Amino acid sequence: MPSSDPLPGLFVTIDGPSGIGKSTTARTLHALLTQDGHNSHLTCEPSGGPIGTLARELTEQVTGPALACLYAADRYHHLENEIRPAMATGKIVITDRYLLSGLVMQQFDGVDPAFIRGINADIDRPDVAVVLDADPHVITGRLAARGKHNRFQRITASSFLEAHLYRKATEELTAAGYPVLRLDCTQISPEQAADHIRDALAGPIATLSVGTS
Ligand SMILES: Nc1ncnc2c1ncn2[C@@H]1O[C@H](COP(=O)(O)OP(=O)(O)O)[C@@H](O)[C@H]1O
Ligand SMILES: Cc1cn([C@H]2C[C@H](O)[C@@H](COP(=O)(O)OP(=O)(O)O)O2)c(=O)[nH]c1=O
């Protein structure tokens, strides 16, 4: 069930194509917020919990709706056991990947986004959903330099398909009132990207009801 009462912390998600710089930007943002004296908690999906670990292990062999359900199950478990408890103590929670990753990546297996929206209907809505975008040629280069982690990333021209699907899914979520912050990081460093996000968080941080320092 989604939490009915707003929790005192702040919930920030970072999504975008594989290799674009999510993990680097999330780590840098976490460090910046910590430097500023905020209590920040960095996490990711699939999570390090039992379902997330299983989902990561099974991504090579399991496909379609079954894999989609595993990722969604991990998301509910992650919310219940890590994200909400951290937010309840006033922390700024940053997760590297969330709903948008499911909406996009499961389309590689032919899963209808409506199915993904359905099984994720009860997840918590982030306060800010950051989506990193970039020129697909640049994403391809970063992914190749970083190394490919799984079958999705080994598909020919996967970065082009991911970038296209992320743009489409982002437009749909924005139109549905989702709090999206889209950031083109083709030509900016992870430090500059994290700085932009920190600036965008200044307003929501000022409204935190529990001190986070
Ligand atoms: N803004 C950026 N500009 C240039 N290179 C970047 C940027 N962000 C990340 N990188 C580099 O791109 C590669 C992939 O970054 P990573 O954070 O692992 O991506 P993701 O988590 O999105 O898969 C890494 O080698 C990283 O150093
Ligand atoms: C959260 C989530 C991740 N995934 C996939 C996308 C990634 O290929 C994989 C996570 O792998 P990971 O190595 O963490 O991603 P990255 O290459 O960006 O560092 O899980 C889904 O397919 N659906 C989801 O809902």
Automatic annotation (TrEMBL):
Reaction(s) catalysed (UniProt annotation): dTMP + ATP = dTDP + ADP
GO molecular function: ATP binding; dTMP kinase activity
Gene: tmk
Function comment: Phosphorylation of dTMP to form dTDP in both de novo and salvage pathways of dTTP synthesis.
Source organism of this protein record: Jiangella alba
Lineage: Bacteria, Bacillati, Actinomycetota, Actinomycetes, Jiangellales
InterPro entries in UniProt: P-loop_NTPase (IPR027417), Thymidylate_kin-like_dom (IPR039430), Thymidylate_kinase (IPR018094)
Pfam families in the cross-refs: Thymidylate_kin
Any one of the GO BP annotations: dUDP biosynthetic process
Name of the protein this chain belongs to: Thymidylate kinase
Documented EC number(s): 2.7.4.9
